[in-house]
């Protein structure tokens, strides 16, 4: 999830654990505790980009990291609030819960989270919620803001606390049901059209949970399409993108290539843009792909021009967006403007 959502949800959980013990300071402690796994951003200051991609949501999002850091944070907080006589075990439960919630939620996005690092490099990606979903984030954000503003003794705090924690949980369950429905539809359509594949995933399109991005393919290439929960036709318009892995034969010693392949979890294609080969990670979707099925992929990495790869994960996420594109996304999300 995005950092603001983690901060807001962390503040609500802090209120639940510590609100009656340390007042509104609980909101701050909660926001800080929930944000701890994201300290991996510091790696970006000295790591090459391809290594940074693997470091993000790596060890600091692992169970081992939480196991090691929880007692250290608990002892620090216990010393700072010694006069309150809060048991050390309670502090440990608080910090452990906050960080576990963080890495659990990140596992529902498409980036991938290294829960088992360093023992396994497998990345857990349930691909259930877009990394910035306003329908998930609004409620903890609103609740955290209200909890900051209303008096500490107000009986309304309990209502807002429950709203900030329970509604995101309900929405997560709703999103999981949506994914099951999309997966059932997509696999059935792929079977009906005799499209074979060895790799497959679905993930939400930007900012919603109704329109889903679908990828199915193998070492030769991938079929890419979109389907809305409200599509009435039992069909998906797929565009085929050849993998073109043979274009990489001359780059076997390229320092970034093997890391990029590992990061992509094998969901990649290669293209040539001008004088540079471009590595596409398909997991992050297409730039306005619901409107133009042949658009570029959000994550496109210039293999011969690494200096052009800053913000590689973000740069295409909202490229070409304007009012018309936003409305096109909304129409497609509710089952209209289906590409034939």
What does this structure look like?
With 340 residues, this protein is α+β, with helices and mostly antiparallel strands. It has 2 domains: 3-174, no CATH class; 193-333, no CATH class. Helix content is 43%, strand content 14%. It contains 9 helices and 7 strands; from the N terminus they run H-H-H-H-H-H-H-E-E-E-E-H-E-E-E-H. It has helices spanning 3-22, 25-35, 49-55, 63-80, 88-106, 134-149, 156-192, 257-264, 323-333; strands spanning 199-204, 211-218, 221-228, 239-242, 268-273, 276-286, 297-302. It has a 4-stranded antiparallel sheet with strand order 1-2-3-4. Helix 1 (3-22) packs antiparallel against helix 2 and helix 2 (25-35) crosses helix 5 (88-106). The longest helix is centred in the middle third of the chain and has 37 residues, at 156-192. It is globular, with a radius of gyration of 22 Å.
Q: Measured on Cα atoms, how large is the radius of gyration?
A: 22 Å
Individual helix count:
9
> Mean pLDDT, nearest integer?
93
Estimate the helix proportion, in percent: 40-55%
**Alpha-carbon distance between the two ends:** 33 Å
SSE arrangement, N to C: HHHHHHHEEEEHEEEH
How does the SSE layout of this entry go?
Layout (H helix, E strand, L loop, with lengths): L2 H20 L2 H11 L13 H7 L7 H18 L7 H19 L27 H16 L6 H37 L6 E6 L6 E8 L2 E8 L10 E4 L14 H8 L3 E6 L2 E11 L10 E6 L20 H11 L7
Antiparallel strand pairs: 1-2, 2-3, 3-4, 5-6, 6-7
